[in-house]
C-alpha cells in the first residue's frame, strides 16, 4: 500500500491483492465508480456502485468499522473520487491502483457477461 498525506488526511493506494484479501475478510466497503453499463458488463462481487458522475461524498457510509476503497476501470476515476472524498472531509480514504484491468490481469474472480447469452457469469 502506498500512502500520501493530503493536508491532514491520508490517501491510500491499494494493490489488487490487498483489496482482494480485505474484501474476503469483509474489512472494506468496495465502491465501483464506473458507469452502470460498465458495472453490468463486469464487476467485482460484493462491490457497490456509485458512478463518478453521481458522486456524493455525503452519501458515503462512515468508516468506523470498514475502510472505503474506490475502484474503476484503470484507477484514474477512482483516484479522482477518493481525492474528492478527502476534500469533503474524509480523513482516510483509499482507491485500488490499476482498477478492474489490474484485477483481471491478476486473475481475481469477477462477474462477467456470457457473450453468447448476455447473462452474467462468474469468471475465476
Automatic annotation (TrEMBL):
<dbReference type="InterPro" id="IPR001763">
    <property type="entry name" value="Rhodanese-like_dom"/>
</dbReference>
<dbReference type="Pfam" id="PF00581">
    <property type="entry name" value="Rhodanese"/>
</dbReference>
<feature type="domain" description="Rhodanese">
    <location>
        <begin position="24"/>
        <end position="112"/>
    </location>
</feature>
<protein>
    <submittedName>
        <fullName>Rhodanese-like domain-containing protein</fullName>
    </submittedName>
</protein>
Amino acid at each position: 500500500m502506498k500512502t500520501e498525506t493530503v493536508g491532514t488526511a491520508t490517501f491510500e493506494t491499494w494493490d489488487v491483492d490487498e483489496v482482494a484479501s480485505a474484501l474476503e475478510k469483509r474489512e472494506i466497503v468496495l465502491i465501483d465508480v464506473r458507469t452502470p453499463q460498465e458495472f453490468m458488463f463486469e464487476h467485482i462481487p460484493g462491490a457497490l456502485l456509485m458512478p463518478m458522475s453521481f458522486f456524493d461524498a455525503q452519501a458515503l457510509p462512515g468508516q468506523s468499522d470498514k475502510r472505503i476503497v474506490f475502484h474503476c476501470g484503470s484507477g484514474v476515476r477512482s483516484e479522482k473520487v477518493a481525492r474528492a472524498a478527502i476534500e469533503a472531509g474524509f480523513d482516510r480514504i483509499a482507491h485500488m491502483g490499476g482498477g478492474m484491468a489490474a484485477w483481471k490481469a491478476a486473475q481475481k474472480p469477477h462477474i462477467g457477461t456470457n457473450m453468447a447469452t448476455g447473462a452474467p457469469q462468474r469468471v475465476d
